[in-house]
Amino acid sequence: MTDSYELYYWPMLPGRGEFVRLVLEEAGVPYRDVARLPEAEGGGVQALMPFIRGERPGLPPYAPPILVHGDLVLAQTAAICAYLGERHGLTPDDPEKRMQVLQLQLTVADVTDEAHDTHHPVSVVLYYEDQKEAAREAARQFLDQRLPRFLPYFERVVERNGGPWLMGDALSYADLSLFQLLEGLAYAFPRGFAKVTESTPALVALRARVASLPRIAAYLASDRRLGFNEHGVFRRYPELDLDG
Amino acid sequence: MTDSYELYYWPMLPGRGEFVRLVLEEAGVPYRDVARLPEAEGGGVQALMPFIRGERPGLPPYAPPILVHGDLVLAQTAAICAYLGERHGLTPDDPEKRMQVLQLQLTVADVTDEAHDTHHPVSVVLYYEDQKEAAREAARQFLDQRLPRFLPYFERVVERNGGPWLMGDALSYADLSLFQLLEGLAYAFPRGFAKVTESTPALVALRARVASLPRIAAYLASDRRLGFNEHGVFRRYPELDLDG
Lengths: 244, 244
Hints:
The structure is a homodimer.
Chain A: E1 5-8, H1 17-27, E2 31-33, H2 49-52, E3 66-69, E4 72-75, H3 77-87, H4 95-119, H5 132-160, H6 173-188, H7 190-197, H8 201-211, H9 214-220
Parallel strand pairs in A: 1-2
Antiparallel strand pairs in A: 1-3, 3-4
């Protein structure tokens, strides 16, 4: 099968689609970011609707991001990253190490979910404004109790494997996702993130190292890269960060 | 490598460890459920502590469940299920279909997380009693808005693939996890679950079909099977279910 990929994701926010984009970019393969095309070329939110309404053939996705590759329709961020990782040398061939990369990816996803839930603790179907009080408490616990365990955990993994990457000397898709998580946390919680990362120098170095990978650096400087905003997973609501 | 597995999980609740147990049981392989052994034989919660404190060699797990297989230490429920599934014929060999099973497993995990978060919406580090008001609203939204989308989604997958299993005629680890999700929802929200499943006959049939698999039926009748309780993911708090 050729490496002709289509990505479908909400066009107005980086969200979970960005974890997939980083793998596609580092793999150096062409892809169409369909919903970000002009509507006249089949883009826009309506490009997602046939999947969500179950009208497309293939296994139905529950939600974006969705990767289309030939007849394959694949959803769930970690499954898409693992699929691309196997095809493009961004995960080890050895089955045990391949599963360990998936373990790390799923732990990145857990932190990402908890970061999201700081601004939507009660329900994703309610507005932030309708759960602000719970959100303040959720964010406080996240910054005080959760992030100071999650980030040192990843620091320990890098150290245990000898660095500079999570799995040692081999870059994997989990490193790219960890980079995006760190970028998102730095955006959403500048004070809280700065405090926790004082004690995680290997993560600070890993973040900079991903950003300077030639293909990633070119991508970050391009207009393909979407900035964070208050529609996505990582939102900068100053009232949810540590007090100054 | 021999099929000599050790599972490490909190001994007092089924939780996410139960998704792993179901795969081990259907695979028909022997395993030691270490933390459920008597303390004199190395069991109990303290069996988990060397992993959590990072004292064990191998890739550190962030949290249980943890599978040990030879030198491999593997965490994250979906990664463990995928690993066992590949070794014991509970996922397709074809890379595309194998990733689709992972997609479905991760969607089961998403619903499981949302079910958990109904009783802990604000933070896992606070008691239920300290977030009861938010929990009532979270549970209401989960039963009104989320479950009526998630369960028909899985129904559509079974129908699309021709049934009786998620992937058609081949049982996979995702079916076993979907069974556990349905069992948990039926326990936690008897009224809400009964209402939603009126329109998902294929899921009702799949749940019964898993329960009658010979190895699973023997397991469910054994004392290895832990019942649900109010320490786990799925908790029966009547105030969180639909009104009678």
